[in-house]
Structures are given as structure tokens and as C-alpha cells.
Amino acid sequence: MSDALVEIDDLKVHFPIKSGLLFDRTVGYVYAVDGVSLKIKRGETYGLVGESGCGKSTLGRGLLRLVEPTSGGITFDGTDVRALSGERMRLFRRRMQMVFQDPMSSLDPRQSVESLLIEGLKAHGLRTSMHEKLRSTLDSVGLPASALSKYPHEFSGGQRQRIGIARALVLDPELIVADEPVSALDVSIQAQVVNLLDDLQESLGLTYLVIAHDLAVIRHISDTIGVMYLGSLVEEATADQLYERPLHPYTKALLSAVPIPDPLVEDRRERILLAGDLPSPANPPSGCRFRTRCPWSQIRCAEERPELRVFDDSGQRVACHFAEQILSGELRPHEVRAELVRPAGDAAVDAELIPTQGDLPTP
Amino acid sequence: MPLLDVRDLSVVFQRKGTRPVRAVDGVSFTVEPGQTVGLVGESGCGKSVTSLAIMGLLPRRGNKVTGEVRFDETDLLKLRPQDLRDWRGRDIGMIFQDPLSSLNPVIPLGLQVAEVLERHQGRTRKAALKQARDLLDAVGIPDPDRRLDEFPHQLSGGMRQRALIAIALACKPRLLIADEPTTALDVTIQAQILTLLKELVDDSGTALVMITHDLGVVAGLCDTVNVLYAGKVVERAYRHQLFAEPRHPYTHGLLQSVPRLDVDRGERLHQIRGSVSDNIPWSEGCAFAPRCDRVIDDCIGETVPLEPTFRGGALRCTNPVPQEVPA
Question: Could you give the C-alpha distances from B58 to B13, B61, B99, B175, B229, in angstroms and in order?
Fold first, then answer.
């Protein structure tokens, strides 16, 4: 497969849960990412969608080795990323950059835009014609050159996100991992940033991994979409295919839960309401991770964990034993009783989790 | 007769040494008994401040609240704080955005629900706790007997929001104000909570004021929608009217700029230029004018009035989006 820029093979990121005062004992693991395999083609946008706690951000960070994966393989343009060490990894990161959710907390408030942008160039020893580079990058994200001498607080939310994008772009990366790039922005500003990402991809031939919880946004910008639930991919398809024919019960529920700004549609919609909450990733259910909330679950679902398999010629992949039967209507949904889920267990769990951005917008 | 009649409500934030900020600028709307009214807008449009002003929850210092908030013919703004307390929780319930910060972390859940019943209905602790159990059950919290003794941190976000709804509805209020009740929740949990709210409101005949930035939430829930921009109502209409034929360029632009799941993917999203901070003051014309695609000379100069349209709707625009002529 030469057209794949990134190949992730059975990637696992487990965080240890430690306990004890003097000597840390590992008492368990949080299975944040638990065996994900996917390919991102050159020049495409891969959208990763899922609810908070499903491991989508950890997967993005694991890909850039911002958190060290527990096991599995990452191949970037033929290079085994996990085999790179220290200095070589640092230099390699130039080719893959990240855009974060909240531009207010990911931009140092005491650095001017110029110093923010120049930091990356210096770190990678690109000192020739730096200022021209900065100007052209700012221009490509729609900011005037006068922005260089300003500080992050002087900009609005949308402009700050443009600075975040410029900081990633200035190194001419091939892959940009965008973790919730628009969810902290107001609705009218979201469209601007989404369009900007689109334009940049077209003019620079970038490859994106976009991580978001908003299905409508993901569908708009992605070519391929992967749906994550509790650390693993449950379904993967092209954007149109996924919305036309969702196969996995979780994808169905997720799609039906998104409110649509049209009363005529809303009044007639049938919702698949899921019972209860996401189970704890420290203590995932046996077999299929989704079975505790799945209205179609069967005995087999508790015993055997479904593999992500190719469903048919369309290339759609799904991790469900009964996808065919559910699609044909052979299997009918049944009622599910909500199980009570403890948020993150005890305090020890909280302490060991890496701090990641919250998934949802602050209005 | 409307249950809630907000007339010309204004909130000005004043602090020494800074220019006063008009957060809410002459907002008027009514809520009929049993009706669901939406207040929609982006951050900084004054939607949350409106709800806090109605409930008398804004700090007295540094805020000037003017206008009238008539609830059942009583002007809530004129009541003394101790008298207003009798209304809050009994006649008007409120749900906030973040359930973790609106629940007390060191008091068991049961007591927090029971407290409302003890205060307003004079129940004994024992009777109130019994009723609290039923309330938790009614909002769909599993195993309510055990939940009574638990603390908010032991529950998930969705369950906390359910507990908050139980508290707000404990005394069967006639009006419920929900300020972004689902913004902090995931979509599948949001669907659960919205369905629950809809059922409870339909069953009890409680009127609901829904404050949100999410047009999709409004489309499924509200009878009438008020769109706010920079502290003023810019458009009001029945929901079918508003979504089918938005007249204000701001409403129109908002609806165009959100990607939708049910239509084919377009090439580009419509975008509203600039940002919320690019406003001009209302006294110098239409605040939205600097960002508006349909701006004409008349937009700048003096305040654009809110003109009534039909069926109780209203519009504040000199050059509205033309209506399609029915075929």
C-alpha cells in the first residue's frame, strides 16, 4: 500500500493505575486505546469521531508519540515511527504537526505571535528567510502581517485558532492532527475555520487526521470516518457511506442522537436512545465493548469480542457479530436497562490519567 | 394571559474605572403556560444573563437591572430578596449548564433534592427523602434508593444532570428555565436528557424557557424561538417559520453555516465574516451591520426597531432576507 501515508497497526495505549503512598503499585490499567488499526491515505482527511472518553484524543497523541504507545506499530511514509529514538524522533515530528482544541490554552500568553511561530522553525534549524516564511504562512491562514507583533489575548477565538493552525503549518508538515479544531468556537466562526482547513488542504496537499465529537462537522470535512467506542474502532467507512448505511448499532445511535436544525425533520425522526453511560475504560465489559448499551446485543456478544472486519465490496469495516442480521431486520432491538457507571472509579485513577482537553464546547 | 412577561429587560454591568457594558439591552418576550420558548444566540449575546436576571440571581453589586419581569402578574424585580426566595424553586425552577458546579459536592444527593421540598412544602426530612427517591426514579436514575446517600462525584455527567432536573421539578414549578442543559454532555446523553425534559414538560404542563446555542436542540423542542444578538432580540418566530424562512440575515447565516447530517455534503460552508467582537453599538445602528452581507446605508445611523411580523413574530432588520413567494 504505497498510497497510505500513515498506517496504524493494532495500536494500544494503556495507562497504569497506581496506588500506594511510598511505593507505587500498579493496580490496573485504563485501556484508553485498545487495538486500533487504520490507514490514512495521502491527501485525504480521516475523521475520528466518538464521545468523550472513547480514546480518540489519546489515539491522535499516540500517533505523534506525544504519549508513548504500549504496543502496536505506526508507519509514516514507510518509516517505522516507533523505532525512532530521541533526536531522530524530534526531527521527524516536523512532518507531523498538531492543532489543538482550545487556542487560548495551547498558545503561550506571554509569547508574541512571531515568537510562537518562530519557535518551531528554530527548533528544526530552518533559519533562512524566516520572516518571509512567517508572513506567507500568516497570509495563508488569513491573518495580516501586523499580527506578528501581537499577543494571543489580542485576538478573537477564531483568529487564535488561525494562529494555532499557522504554527502547525509553518514547518511544512505532511500530516496535521487536529484535535477538536472547532469545538471551542462559536457557530458562526466554526464555518470559517472549517473552510480554512479545506482551502489549505487543497493548496498544500495536506493530509489530516481530524478528531471531533461533532458528527455533522466530521462528515462535512472527512473523506473517511472512523467511529470509536471505548478504545477501539467500531466502524469505518467513507463519509457518505457511513451516513447512508450505518452498520454498527453504536453508529446508528450516534447518528440518530444528533439534533438537526429543521423542525420538520426533528418531528418525524426516530431516535435510538441509548441506556446508561459509557462504561469505565479501566474495567471494560467482556466481549463486545458496546454490548451493555446495545439494543441488539446477544449472548455471543458477551463471550467473543468482534473483530473489525470488511463488510462488503464498498470497503466499509464494522466490528459487530450481527451487522448483517441487523441490516436485514432479522434481528429486532430489545429493551436495555441502564447500568450505573461510576465516573472514573476512585481518585487514584484520576491522578494517573494524562490531562487532555475536555471534548465539549464552552458556550 | 402570559405566565411570564419580560418587558424591556436591560442589564448593565458597571465597574469602577471601566465603561459600562450593556449585556442585555431591552429584551422583551412572553411565555404562555405550558409553552416552550427558546432563547438562541452565540457567546456574549446575553442569553444567560437574561435568565439570571429573571431569577434575580445576578449579584446586586455592579449590575443595574431595569425593566419588568412579570411572573403571574407579580414583578419579580420589585420583590425583596427574601420574598423572591419563596418563588424560586417553588414556581420557577432552573437547570444550569454544568451539573457538577451547581450541585453541592459535600451533601448527599438525597438531601439536596429533599431540601427543596422541606423549604417550600414544609415536609419533614423523612417524608421529603421518600419523595426525593421517587423523583430520582422519575428522572431515570437507576437504583434510586442507593443514590440518595451518594455524592455528586459518584455519578456520571448525565446522571448529575438528571439529579438537577429532579431538584428543579421537585415542587412542580409552573416555569422551568434551562440554561444550556446539555452543552456539557455527549450527544447520546444529550438525546437522553432532551427526551426526558420533553416528556416531563409535556406531562406536567410546565412552561419551559430553553437557552441554548444549538439550533438543532431548538428545532426539536421549542414552540417559539427568540434569536439574540449583542443583547437584543433580532428575530422572533414560530419554530417552523424560523427554520423554513429565516428573515434576519444573522439567523439566515447561522442556519447556513452549520453542516447538517441530513443533506448532501456541500462544497463549502457559508460563513459569517468577522467575529462577535466586531459589533457596533446598537445606538449607532444595527450591531450586526459590520458582519452582514445585506448591509445598506439605512443600517447605520440609528437603532433599528423590533417590528412585529405576523403571529406574534418580530424582526429587527432594515433589509431582511426576502420571503419566497408561495407558488
Answer: 10, 9, 19, 19, 20
pTM above 0.90, yes or no: no
B268 Cα to chain A: minimum distance (Å): 6
Helices (H) and strands (E) in chain A, counts: 14, 12
Measured between CA atoms, the residue of chain B closest to residue A267 is: B220
Q: What distance in Å separates the CA atoms of residue A213 and residue A49, rounded to the nearest whole number?
A: 5
Between B157-169 and B125-138, two packed helices, what is the crossing angle to 10 degrees? 120
Within 10 angstroms of residue A22's Cβ, the number of other Cβ atoms is 4
Domains of chain A: 4-222 (3.40.50.300), 247-355 (no CATH)
Q: Which amino acid is it at A213?
A: H
Count the Cβ atoms, other than its own, within 10 Å of residue A253: 21
Identify all chain B residues contacting A276, using CB atoms and an 8 Å cutoff.
Answer: 142
Nine cell digits for residue A150: 501581537
Q: Kindly provide the ipTM of the predicted complex, given to two decimals.
A: 0.82
pLDDT in tens, B41-58: 988 888 889 999 999 888
Please, which pLDDT band fits residue A239 given cuts at 50, 70 and 90? very high
The whole-angstrom separation of Cα A222 and Cα A310 is 20
Instruction: Look at A344 and B48; give whichever has higher pLDDT.
Output: B48
Residue of chain A nearest B225, judged by CA positions:
A263
pLDDT along chain B (327 residues), means of 10: 93 87 92 93 88 90 91 91 90 88 92 93 93 91 89 88 91 92 86 89 91 90 93 92 92 89 78 81 89 90 87 89 71
Q: B75, B56 in Cβ contact below 8 A? A: no
Helix A113-123 to helix A130-140 angle (10° resolution) is 120
Residues 237-256 (B) with a CB less than 8 A from some CB of A: 239-240, 243-244, 253-255
Give every CB contact of residue B318 below 8 A, 6+ residues apart in sequence. Answer: B286, B296, B298, B299, B304
Q: What cell numbers appear for A197 in the block?
A: 482547513
CA dihedral A274, B100, A342, A101 (to 10 degrees): 70
A356 CB contacts (<8 Å, ≥6 apart)?
A57, A58, A61
CB A271 within 8 A of CB B201: no
Q: Give dist(CA B220, CA A262) in Å, integer.
A: 8
Looking at the DSSP bridge assignments, the partners of residue A309 are A318
Query: Is B290 near chain A, with CB under 8 Å?
Result: no
Angstrom CA distances, A331 to A297, A317, A327, B3, stand at 10, 20, 8, 48
- Region at A102 (left for phi over 0; alpha for psi -120 to 50; beta for the rest): beta
What single letter denotes the amino acid at residue B300? I
Q: Whose grid coordinates read 446495545?
A: A294
Across the range A304-316, mean pLDDT stands at 91
Question: Nearest to residue B276, comparing CAs of B254, B302, B247, B243?
Answer: B254
**How far from each other are the two terminal CA atoms of chain B, in whole angstroms?**
37
